[in-house]
Amino acid sequence: MLSSVSLSRKRKLSDPPHSSSEPKKLPLPAVASLYNLDPAATGPQQIELRRKVCLRVGRSKKNDIILTPADCSTYHCEIGVSYLNGKDIIYLKDLSSNGTFVNGLLVGKDNTCLIRSGDKISFAAECHYILKYQASFTLKSARRPGTGSFYDSYVIGELLGCGHYAQVKECVRRSTGESCAVKIFNPTRKDANWATSLNRELDILMKIDHPNIVRSYETFVEPYDANTMTTYLVLEKVNGGELFNRIVSKGKLRQNETKALMSQLMSGLKYLHSLDIAHRDLKPENILLDITLRSSDSDKQTGPWDAHELDVKVKIADFGLAKFIGATKFTDTLCGTPAYVAPEVLVNSTERKYTKTVDMWSVGVLIYVCLCGFPPFSEELGPPSMRQQIIEGKYAFYSPYWDEIEDSALDLISRLLVVDATKRLEVSKASKHVWFDEVRPKKELRETAFKGTRAVVTRGYSNPIMLAERVKSSLGDDTLARAYSADVDMA
Ligand code: ADP
């Protein structure tokens, strides 16, 4: 049977005792609850925490909350709610020599720590609770309101990935058992850029509905501590990891495979651009893959996938840097990851003007990377610097890496990696390019064939480094990105 302990009947530690003639005060509101993670355990299933009340927890009958496990101390800890600067904060003071643990970390005897929504508190080896704020204390998104707190509707699971602004974890919807992903924004990143980026992402995501774009279901904004809030963004869960990992594990992708993936990317991008939305941060880390495996050899594959795969769906993710392009048709924030960023974004100008075409440059870089396994612009290919290579549109199709690739692929790339953004192929035209059309007669193919030059790597000069090698030698794109963004910031 479920039992619940409320603090309403408990004394407020700071209050003097009431005289019998005084009118009874209404209980202070419950701010949060601790939920027992083991429904079969003997301890209370739910412990309500009320404003300005402190609860003592332990094995002794003198405690407010009595827990029976043998490894729980007589007086184990105190949990209280303080009202500070107009906010309710929940703290825990460890009184035990056996230790109280928050998210697996020991608080330590006589130490006090803040407890936040979603924190797991372990009073003993087999006695764990999770804290969540009451629904009335949470601010729900007005766009697609969920009911109550995130933890009312979802059970949180393993970490799926970490980004610049957030952690992404697995979660299961309690009502349906559906597996989803939740992006939990880092509440400590409170700088203006972070807040702007977050609101921008939420605004955009709630309006988007396309099979090649990660679906977003609902958002919850909940207190994290006295001064910060955390946003939970519930997303469609994508099971096959990042395109980045696929390239790294295979070295490079087959031509027909790249074609099939990129045409899905184009479809998602076409939808976004038709809504006047630029993604602005397209790179292999932001392209997720939803993979359905074959259950037998007789299962007919939907495309040129690996032998064990039935279907691979591209899902564009992470709109952290995306923005609606308004009437002025340009945005003025410097953004994106340098290796994939368009030249106009890097140009040293007080008025940076760029639009959806920045995505088409990134698509050019993406197709290039998929087909040969290394990026067209990098420090190793210099001099000049990667920045200068991008600004000048200086890249080449190195032999022998490009020898076997169809001319039409080179043609498409060279129509995308065009420094003059007004001359760059738009998504509607790029998606109709002959490279995507397997059945188009050879004659037409030849008409649009690539007329540029295939460069040869000069020995001892510029040697491309494969993405896979970069990762092995910890020369990940992030390392480059960081080094490079310093350069960009100074521009
Ligand atoms: P940030 O905006 O902070 O950079 P991302 O949106 O890029 O965060 O997410 C970080 C990582 O989490 C991704 O690279 C990916 O590995 C994983 N991830 C993100 N969204 C999902 C999802 N819907 N399903 C599965 N994994 C995801």
From TrEMBL:
<feature type="domain" description="Protein kinase">
    <location>
        <begin position="154"/>
        <end position="436"/>
    </location>
</feature>
<keyword id="KW-0067">ATP-binding</keyword>
<feature type="region of interest" description="Disordered">
    <location>
        <begin position="1"/>
        <end position="26"/>
    </location>
</feature>
<dbReference type="GO" id="GO:0005524">
    <property type="term" value="F:ATP binding"/>
</dbReference>
<dbReference type="InterPro" id="IPR011009">
    <property type="entry name" value="Kinase-like_dom_sf"/>
</dbReference>
<dbReference type="GO" id="GO:0006303">
    <property type="term" value="P:double-strand break repair via nonhomologous end joining"/>
</dbReference>
<dbReference type="InterPro" id="IPR017441">
    <property type="entry name" value="Protein_kinase_ATP_BS"/>
</dbReference>
<dbReference type="Pfam" id="PF00069">
    <property type="entry name" value="Pkinase"/>
</dbReference>
<feature type="domain" description="FHA">
    <location>
        <begin position="55"/>
        <end position="107"/>
    </location>
</feature>
<keyword id="KW-0418">Kinase</keyword>
<comment type="similarity">
    <text>Belongs to the protein kinase superfamily. CAMK Ser/Thr protein kinase family. CHEK2 subfamily.</text>
</comment>
<dbReference type="InterPro" id="IPR000719">
    <property type="entry name" value="Prot_kinase_dom"/>
</dbReference>
<keyword id="KW-0808">Transferase</keyword>
<feature type="binding site">
    <location>
        <position position="183"/>
    </location>
    <ligand>
        <name>ATP</name>
    </ligand>
</feature>
<dbReference type="GO" id="GO:0004674">
    <property type="term" value="F:protein serine/threonine kinase activity"/>
</dbReference>
<dbReference type="Pfam" id="PF00498">
    <property type="entry name" value="FHA"/>
</dbReference>
<dbReference type="InterPro" id="IPR008984">
    <property type="entry name" value="SMAD_FHA_dom_sf"/>
</dbReference>
<keyword id="KW-0547">Nucleotide-binding</keyword>
<dbReference type="InterPro" id="IPR008271">
    <property type="entry name" value="Ser/Thr_kinase_AS"/>
</dbReference>
<dbReference type="GO" id="GO:0000077">
    <property type="term" value="P:DNA damage checkpoint signaling"/>
</dbReference>
<dbReference type="InterPro" id="IPR000253">
    <property type="entry name" value="FHA_dom"/>
</dbReference>
<dbReference type="GO" id="GO:0031297">
    <property type="term" value="P:replication fork processing"/>
</dbReference>
<keyword id="KW-0723">Serine/threonine-protein kinase</keyword>
<protein>
    <submittedName>
        <fullName>Cell-cycle checkpoint serine-threonine kinase</fullName>
    </submittedName>
</protein>
<dbReference type="GO" id="GO:0030447">
    <property type="term" value="P:filamentous growth"/>
</dbReference>
